[in-house]
Amino acid sequence: MLPSDNSYIGVIDKKDSRIFGKKLPNDLEVILKTLEPFQKKIQGIVVESTHNWYWLVDGLQEARYKVHLANPAEMQQYSGMKYTDDTWDSYWLAHLLRLGILPEGYIYPKEIRPVRDLLRKRTMLVRHRTAHILSLQNMVNRNTGRKVNVNDAKRLSEEKISEQLTDEHHKMAVQSDKAVIDFFHEQIDRIEKAVLKEVKLRYPFEELLTVPGIGKILGITIMLETGDINWFPTVSDYSSYCRCVSSKKVSNGKKKGEGNKKNGNKYLAWAYVEAANFMVRYSEPARRGYQRKAAKTNKIVAIKALSNKIARACYFIIKDQTPFDPRKLFQ
Asked: HEC states along the chain?
């Protein structure tokens, strides 16, 4: 088990007997020293997939242990159990591994992980920049009745701000937003240049650039977040991982509950929503399909539906190495 500041190590033998257990600080040197007496006999080590698993998995692999990354979302415990703790969970993971039924996650290659994490930072900065653009637009619209589009908001000068707003406090609020927007834009541009210098779209992801709305940065984001496409046996598995599938539970036409909405990759979910927004701008068939769906539901549902179509299309584009065909997407 791997909480934020400590770990519990449980060791079992082939008969499921507990032969060692100890709570340790999250210190790789201490953990390796503790495992050293068992190293020759250890068949595998299970690490729970938490927010902080990188250092431990990397360290254990470098020490030549066979590491398995447990997927907590897929694990089932005994029903009716009243009490569990880190000790019990540790032995439970070892038990699942011994039986060969441990649900495992993908251990992303250490070499490329920093670039992926840098792109995740870019995603966060883009969201923050968007929040300040919306704030600026609302401030101007609320006080002047004029609409400011996104590109104009990014290019808004001090003179333009003074022309549009008379109150000094409103000016300061807009100037603050504009200063933050400029800062985020600079950092985003810096990250993009670093990523493009370091990483290129590689086989089998090159054909992603044939999709309207997917450029180099978005394509690289999809490539790095997807990893090995063969981890997804079917297009439905991939679409679900991209959070493009509804988590509703329905019986007899009625909603009975929901599944785990957060199960999947939020960065791929964002990437395909971004691709959908761009595709609506640049592809007439996509725009017509989006408008039809929006008329029946709403804009958010329509964009999400289009993002699901794009994710499913990209699965086959990557898997089969075929260019994007709009006729198949909008038939």
From this structure: CCCCCEEEEEEECCCCCEEEEEEEECCHHHHHHHHHHHCCCCCCEEEECCCCCHHHHHHHHHCCCCEEEECHHHCCCCCCCCCCCHHHHHHHHHHHHHHCCCCECCCCCCCCHHHHHHHHHHHHHHHHHHHHHHHHHHHHHHHHCCCCCHHHHHHCCHHHHHHHCCCHHHHHHHHHHHHHHHHHHHHHHHHHHHHHHHCCCCCCCHHHHHCCCCCHHHHHHHHHHHCCHHHCCCHHHHHHHCCCCCCEEEECCEEEEECCCCCCCHHHHHHHHHHHHHHHHHCHHHHHHHHHHHHHCCHHHHHHHHHHHHHHHHHHHHHHCCCCCHHHHCC
| 152 CB neighbour count, 10 Å cutoff | 14
Residue 51 to residue 191: CA distance in whole angstroms: 23
Q: How far apart are CA 155 and CA 153, in angstroms?
A: 5
pLDDT digits (tens, 9 = 90+) for 268-318: 999 999 999 999 999 999 999 999 999 999 999 999 999 999 999 999 999
By the 10 Å C-beta count (0-12 exposed, 13-18 middle, 19+ buried), 201 is classed as middle
C-alpha to C-alpha distance for 130 and 273, rounded to whole angstroms: 14
Rounded to a whole number of angstroms, the CA Rg of the chain reads 25
Closest CA to 244 of 314, 319, 174: 314
CB-CB contact of 31 with 3 (8 Å): no
* Most distant pair of Cα atoms in the chain: their distance: 79
This prediction's pTM: 0.84
- Residue 154 near residue 123, CB atoms below 8 Å: no
| Rounded Cα distance, 141 and 145, in Å | 5
Mean pLDDT of 202-206: 86
